């Protein structure tokens, strides 16, 4: 492919921590490239987090390439402003060649090899493409939301900021994954009446036997386990994250305790009919399942401690102190006092702009450690791309370095082929 002012060896789609990490290694390798960002770099961290947001993993796991956490609280949990400051330092260090406000509208392969990239700021070409835009693109909001009264304010988790920004009245939080559980806690601590539709998300302890559970799991090499060695294999990518919090120095999130303090818990929200909300009769099962995961993780730590003869404080099993007295499956909106709803049921990927035969029936790309079978096409920053940390600060460096090494190998092989043809 001929070289033009709009041609690059590599184009990276996405200017979050994944795209910037890749740029760090591409610069080290001396490979010309361009990072295309729809908004501004690390935009999501700045605009789609609530005011009290903080990391759920300890600061020592912030290990972006060439830029590890250097603060004085490695076992603490950075708050939103501190996360942004950390990212700002990384951005300044990398000095990535980024074109901001460049929405990628189409990526297609060319007959002669390589790719054409159409954006809101013009057309570019590249020998290789790395998609580093993450996997959380389109907020999931069920169609039943269309039938809710106009008087009820609705928002998705990425739009929530704080309790004071919501109208008076009770708040229905739908979903109990990381965002749902933490937003429900934020509202509860602010004194708001919360109705929580509890899903099937698992939970884990914050601290156990004298240490953060993350520290134990790191010693147990859990974060180094590749997806193809996980008991669920690629199925682990569909798992909901465990709910826990780093707020106020870190603690468990115990929905049963919240319920004993006045939070109203229901099972999974299923439908809305004639102003009546309908819930699945699975609240008890969901709470029991979450507690089961909590205790199994701790039991694994117990086994590790015993096997290695580690001298530490004793453990124990979580025993619930609150149970639903019955499964409530309906809630009449009129009279419930609910004035707002926060949807916390996740996102779906949207790679509709990428014209390449690499996707499964759910729109997720098939790859091995980010490398697809389509020549020159890679993915980075997806959950469990390779390990648990692939979509997080802790594991992105390892994945980015691997992809750049693969790109370098491809370029070397191509150069050898050209030399052989011209010899």
What does this structure look like?
This protein is of the alpha/beta class. It is built from eight helices and 22 strands. Strands 1, 2, 5, 6, 7, 8, 21 and 22 form an eight-stranded mixed β-sheet that branches. A hairpin with a 2-residue loop joins strand 16 (269-273) and strand 17. Helix 1 (17-28) packs parallel to helix 3 and helix 1 (17-28) packs across helix 8. It is globular. Mean pLDDT is 93; it is low at 417-423.
Question: Which terms would index this structure?
Answer:
2 domains; 423 residues; 20% strand; FAD/NAD-bd_sf; Auxin_biosynth/cation_transpt; five-stranded parallel sheet; disordered C terminus; FAD/NAD(P)-binding domain; monooxygenase activity; 22 strands; eight-stranded mixed sheet; alpha/beta; globular; single chain
Q: Find the count of extended strands (DSSP E, 2+ residues).
A: 22
Give the helix proportion (percent range).
25-40%
Q: Roughly how many Å apart are the termini?
A: 20 Å
| CATH superfamily caption of the largest domain | FAD/NAD(P)-binding domain
**The CATH top-level class label of the largest domain:** Alpha Beta
Strand portion: 15-25%
Pfam family, one: Pyr_redox_3
Protein name: FAD dependent oxidoreductase
InterPro entries: Auxin_biosynth/cation_transpt (IPR050982), CHP04046_FMN-dependent (IPR024000), FAD/NAD-bd_sf (IPR036188)
Organism: Caballeronia humi
């Amino acid at each position: 492919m001929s070289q033009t002012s709009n041609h690059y060896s590599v184009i990276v789609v996405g200017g979050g921590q994944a795209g910037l990490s890749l740029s760090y290694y591409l610069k080290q390798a001396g490979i010309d490239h361009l990072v295309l960002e729809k908004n501004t770099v690390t935009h999501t961290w700045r605009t789609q987090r609530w005011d009290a947001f903080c990391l759920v993993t300890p600061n020592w796991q912030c290990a972006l390439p060439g830029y590890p956490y250097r603060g004085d609280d490695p076992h603490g949990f950075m708050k939103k402003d501190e996360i942004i400051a950390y990212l700002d330092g990384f951005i300044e260090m990398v000095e990535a060649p980024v074109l901001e406000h460049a929405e990628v509208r189409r990526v297609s392969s060319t007959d002669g090899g390589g790719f054409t990239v159409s954006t809101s700021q013009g057309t570019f070409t590249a020998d290789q493409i790395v998609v580093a835009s993450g996997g959380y693109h389109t907020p999931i909001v069920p169609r039943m939301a269309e039938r809710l009264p106009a008087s009820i304010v609705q928002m998705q988790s990425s739009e929530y900021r704080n309790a004071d920004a919501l109208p008076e009245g009770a708040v229905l939080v739908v979903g109990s994954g990381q965002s749902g559980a933490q937003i429900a806690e934020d509202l509860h601590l602010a004194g708001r009446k919360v109705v929580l539709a509890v899903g099937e998300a698992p939970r884990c302890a914050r601290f156990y036997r004298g240490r953060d559970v993350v520290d134990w799991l790191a010693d147990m090499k859990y974060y180094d386990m590749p997806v193809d060695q996980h008991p669920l294999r690629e199925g682990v990518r569909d798992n909901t994250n465990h709910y826990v919090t780093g707020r106020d120095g870190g603690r468990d999130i115990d929905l049963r305790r919240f319920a004993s303090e006045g939070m109203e818990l229901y099972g999974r929200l299923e439908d809305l009919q004639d102003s009546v909300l309908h819930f699945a009769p699975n609240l008890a099962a969901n709470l029991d399942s979450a507690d089961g995961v909590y205790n199994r993780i701790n039991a694994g730590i117990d086994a590790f401690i015993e096997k290695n003869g580690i001298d530490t404080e004793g453990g124990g099993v979580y025993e619930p102190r609150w149970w639903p007295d019955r499964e409530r499956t309906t809630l009449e909106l009129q009279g419930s006092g609910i004035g707002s709803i926060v949807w916390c049921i996740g996102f779906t990927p949207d790679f509709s702009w990428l014209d390449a035969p690499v996707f499964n029936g759910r729109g997720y790309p098939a790859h091995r450690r980010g490398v697809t079978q389509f020549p020159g096409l890679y993915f980075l920053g997806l959950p469990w791309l390779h390990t648990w940390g692939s979509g997080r600060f802790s594991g992105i460096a390892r994945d980015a370095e691997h992809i750049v090494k693969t790109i370098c190998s491809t370029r070397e092989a191509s150069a050898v082929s050209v030399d052989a043809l011209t010899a």
